[in-house]
Design a protein that fits this description.
The chain has about 350 residues and is of the alpha/beta class. The protein contains twelve helices and eleven strands. InterPro entries: Aldo-Keto_reductase (IPR050791), NAD(P)_OxRdtase_dom_sf (IPR036812), NADP_OxRdtase_dom (IPR023210).
Length: about 350
């Protein structure tokens, strides 16, 4: 089942300005934000919520630091109105990060999430990162068992290559693939996007604003806290930032012409990629949330799209998305199933 068949099972909700918003659009409200402003955006709790922050745990779970408050918020009949997604696969053990997708871990992580969230079933269960030591068929095989047992409903992948997606989908239908897609991260368009569309898999685009870059450009660095991980990302390094600032300037020029903000323009570009794409812009501020919603009203012609894509080509962006230590779709291929021998 694709993410948009999943959409059809649920009513659209009116949010803030009256826009009808697909539930996945609201994934990325930060945890404390979604509860702090519940009186303003209460309908967002009735759509879809994903706890996107990894807590450092050694027992397999990935629920974020607000899990306790979240559990309380699901009481009183709210759970039936919420589509709940969470992830597994990235864990912090003995002072270092590890990626796991073996059957024992997959099951333990799911059981731990069900217990912490105090629910009987997770609607959408993502593999956060691909464990390249384990054939993807083995990981998905265990997830398939969890579906059959009623512990999860749908399976999602994150940062998976086209070949990995195909192999996974052959074991059990993949509902969504989450990937970074924005004006300065377009490499997924070559193989991954066409593969998802061929297989009828929904696309969840994270960091559609270039991790905040398309909000204020290079000035973004002035607001980084000391522990902001973006300080270490290659694209924000001095040797790359001056070059990338030119891209922001061009986007800003077009935004002024269109009567919107550069972040709204960047987000509208993702929206216009198709009905099978759901961007998930993150924010901690209600004013930014409002701006993101208004991006739905920005209309782009084919000429607008072509102009944006001409200035957002790969050679106009300097620096990779992450450093080499981070697991991405580019290094997500797994061993063949024939190589697997369960311990």
């Amino acid at each position: 089942m694709s993410v948009f068949q999943l959409f059809d099972k649920m009513p659209l909700r009116k949010v803030l300005l009256g826009w009808l918003v697909r539930f996945l659009y609201l994934l990325s409200l930060l945890f404390f934000f979604s509860f702090r402003t519940r009186t303003v955006t209460s309908s967002s709790r009735e759509n879809h919520t994903e706890d996107a922050f990894v807590r450092r745990r050694e027992n397999g779970g990935e629920e974020g630091s607000g899990a306790g408050s979240f559990v309380q918020a699901l009481k009183g009949g709210v759970r039936e109105k919420v589509e709940l997604a969470t992830k597994f696969g990235l864990c912090y053990v003995d002072g270092k990060w590890d990626v796991r997708g073996d059957p024992v871990y997959v099951r333990a992580a799911c059981e731990a999430s069900l217990k912490r969230l105090d629910v009987d079933c997770i609607d959408l269960y993502y593999q956060h990162c691909i464990d390249t030591r384990v054939p993807i068929e083995v990981t998905i095989g265990e997830l398939k068992k969890l579906v059959e047992e009623g512990k999860i409903k749908y399976i999602g992948l994150s940062e998976a290559s086209a070949s990995t997606i195909r192999r996974a989908h052959a074991v059990h239908p993949i509902t969504v693939v989450q990937l970074e897609w924005s004006l300065w991260s377009r490499d997924v368009e070559a193989e991954i996007i066409p593969t998802c569309r061929e297989l009828g898999i929904g696309i969840v685009a994270y960091s559609p604003l270039g991790r905040g870059f398309f909000s204020v450009g290079s000035k973004l660095l002035e607001n980084f806290s000391e522990d902001d991980f973006r300080q270490k990302l290659p694209r924000f390094q001095p040797e790359n930032l001056a070059h990338n600032a030119k891209l922001f300037d061009r986007v800003n020029e077009i935004a002024q012409r269109k009567g919107c903000t550069p972040s709204q323009l960047a987000l509208a570009w993702v929206h216009h990629q198709g009905n099978d794409v759901c961007p998930i812009p993150g924010t901690t501020k209600i004013e930014n949330f409002n701006q993101n919603i208004r991006a739905l009203s920005v209309k782009l012609s084919s000429e607008d799209m072509a102009e944006l894509e001409s200035i957002a080509s790969a050679d106009n962006v300097k620096g990779s998305r992450y450093d080499s230590s981070i697991s991405t779709w580019e290094n997500s291929d797994t061993p063949p199933l024939s190589s697997w021998s369960a311990a």
